[in-house]
Structure formats: C-alpha cells, structure tokens
Design brief:
The protein has about 350 residues and is α/β, with parallel strands linked by helices. The protein has 2 domains: about 140 residues, Rossmann fold, CATH 3.40.50.1370; about 140 residues, Rossmann fold (3-Layer(aba) Sandwich). The chain is built from 13 helices and 9 strands. The strands form 2 sheets. It has a 5-stranded parallel beta sheet. Helix 2 packs across helix 12. The structure holds phosphoric acid mono(formamide)ester (CP).
C-alpha cells in the first residue's frame, strides 16, 4: 500500500512532527544549496482540475531540487473522468510516474485516484481540504512562535468562510493540541462533522480546543495567529453579492480587527488574497504579516512531503552487478542490431 497524503487526519501527531523535522532539514539544506537528490530521475505527475500558482510551482521546483522532474497535466489536458475513468487514469499514470499530486474539484476524485494508484498520491487541494497547505502552515507557525510558547500553547483564529483551508487548519492545529477558533457568520461556519473530528484530535492530544463562533472581535483577543482565506472561489462567483453582504465589514481582517489581537499576533493567509476584500493591504503588508514566509514554505513543505511519501517505496541502490547485467544485455542487443557507432 503506497503512502498517500490525502488528509493530515490520516496520520498521528508523532508522524506529522517527524515530517515537520524533515521539512526543516530540507529547508536548511536548500539554504546552503545542498538538497540531496533523493528522488533522482523520478517523475511526479501533477493533475490539476483548477488553476494554481503556489501548488504548481512549489511541487515542480521541489521535484527538480530533489533530482527528479514534474509533469504539469493542466485542466482539460488528460482524460480524467471524461473518456477515461479516474481508476484507469490512476492505474496508467502510476505505471509511468513515481508519485502523483492532484488538485481536484471533488474530494472523492483524489480518494479514487489513491484507491487505484500503486504509487503515492498527494492531495493538492479539493473541495474538502488542503493538507499540503496545512503542513506548510504549521511549519510556518513553528517558525513564528510567540516568545516562551510552544505550538500547543497557541490559539489560531480563522476568520471568514469555512473553506477547505479552514478545514485543514482546524484539523492540523487540533492534532497538535492547539486551540482553534473559527469566527464566521452563522451561514458560513464550519460544519459539525469537521468539529467532531477536531474534538477527537484534541482528546487524543490531551490539550487544545475547537470553537465556532460569530463573535470575531472576542475571538481575536486571544489569537496568536489570525488566519483568513478568500470569501468566494471561482465556482461561487454567482454568490458574490450575498457573500460580500454576510462577511463585510465585520469579518474583514483590517487594522481595526488586528488591533484587538495581542501585539505579538501574526497574520496568515494561504493566498491568493483578494486585497481590500477579506484582508486589507494595511494588514497583509504589515510587520505582523507572515504571508510570504508561508508561501515560500510551500516549497520546503512539498520537498518534505515528496520525500516522505515517495522515497521509501523506491529502489535507490540497485546492486552494481544488476546494473552491469542490464547494461551488458542492452549493449549486446545494440551491437547485434548494428546500432553502435563504428
Ligand atoms: N495556496 C494555494 O494553494 O495557492 P494556489 O492556488 O496558487 O496553488
């Protein structure tokens, strides 16, 4: 069974902590220009049903730094679910690639890919969650901890819509025993099913809490990290008037809202941001903002996730005798066929 990466809730806290440590080692190696080629000559197939900047570029650059390469299979370019079943696509790509990453509209598509793929499948965002972003964000929080606090001492307040990033942030923070609050208007709050999973995480961790509220002003007063995301995605553009009316102005992360948070609180956004909508320039470009550290850390997180999932299943050191055996057979064939240079 390959080691898929579909949801941080599929892993224990210790396993994820191990991944964070690997990401740190790879980030430090990258700073010195010394990333080991752990996936040399290996191929990453990247399926996208939706556009992307960070996910696409971070995975492709990560794979090259690890000695491999990536194929960008853009929306509409392959027969995914149209003219060919998801199961057949998974089985074909897994015969040619060493690891797959997919950004799919429906979460069921990425789980179906994983069901049929014999190589690891990494979830690059679905309508339910965004686990690679979540790992990156936790890593970024660890780099920006308030003085004297550990992760489990911190409170993350997610302001705005109950997006896929909200779900992943809720689940990864509670997995690490942190306090998580979703502050949003009543019709856009995190569903009970997400909260139940988060409560299970805090019970396992022995610390932490999860809370959903519309009282955003009260919520940010205890925030170590204030996080927000878009209020609408491409397929929700016909809902813009009612969404804008529900969120604006109370749930916009602006200087007035940030002034209610402790001075050490950091501002986070997965990006892309609609500046002037869910966040103002004043906050996004303030000293409290760590949004570009987050964006850079996608690269380091993807390196870690690729190694963590794909490295163990790969034969890295075929015996010299085996290499010589194959080279000899092929040279002999080429010689017999008269294809060698005279
Ligand atoms: N945060 C994020 O996933 O960005 P992209 O949509 O640009 O990949």
């Amino acid at each position: 069974m390959p080691k898929h990466f579909l949801d941080t809730n599929d892993f224990g806290r210790e396993e994820l902590a191990d991944l964070l440590d690997l990401i740190l080692l790879l980030k430090e190696a990258d700073r010195d220009g010394c990333v080991p080629e752990l996936l040399r000559n290996r191929s990453l197939g990247m399926i996208f049903e939706e556009p992307s900047t960070r996910t696409r570029v971070s995975f492709e650059v990560a794979m090259v730094k690890l000695g491999g390469h990536a194929l960008y299979l853009k929306p509409g370019e392959i027969h995914l679910g149209e003219r060919e079943s998801v199961a057949d696509t998974a089985r074909v790509l897994a015969r040619m690639c060493d690891v797959l990453m997919a950004r799919t509209l429906a979460h069921e598509t990425v789980t179906e890919l994983a069901r049929w793929s014999r190589v690891p499948v990494v979830n690059g965002l679905t309508d339910y969650n965004h686990p690679t972003q979540a790992v990156c964000d936790l890593f970024t929080m660890r780099e920006h901890l308030p003085a004297g606090k550990a992760l489990e001492d911190c409170t993350v307040v997610f302001v705005g819509d109950a997006t896929n990033v909200c779900s992943s942030t809720m689940h990864v923070t509670t997995k690490f025993g942190m306090d998580f609050v979703h502050a949003g208007p009543a019709d856009y709050q995190a569903p009970e099913a997400w909260v139940k999973l988060a409560e299970r995480n805090t019970a396992d961790a022995g610390t932490g809490s999860v809370r959903v509220t519309d009282e955003v002003e009260d919520a940010v007063r205890s925030a170590d990290f204030v996080y927000t995301d878009l209020w609408w995605w491409v397929d929700q553009e016909d809902e813009i008037p009612q969404r804008r009316a529900a969120f604006m102005p109370r749930y916009q992360v602006n200087a007035d809202l940030m002034a209610l948070a402790p001075p050490h609180a950091r501002f986070m956004h997965c990006l892309p941001a609609s500046r002037g909508v869910e966040v103002t320039d004043e906050v996004a470009d303030s000293p409290q903002s760590i949004i570009f550290d987050q964006a850079e850390n996608r690269l380091h997180a993807e390196k870690g996730i690729l190694v963590w999932t794909a490295y163990p299943g790969i034969e890295h050191h075929p015996a010299p005798e085996l290499r010589a055996h194959h080279a000899g057979r092929i040279a002999e064939h080429l010689g017999r066929a008269g294809w060698t240079r005279r």
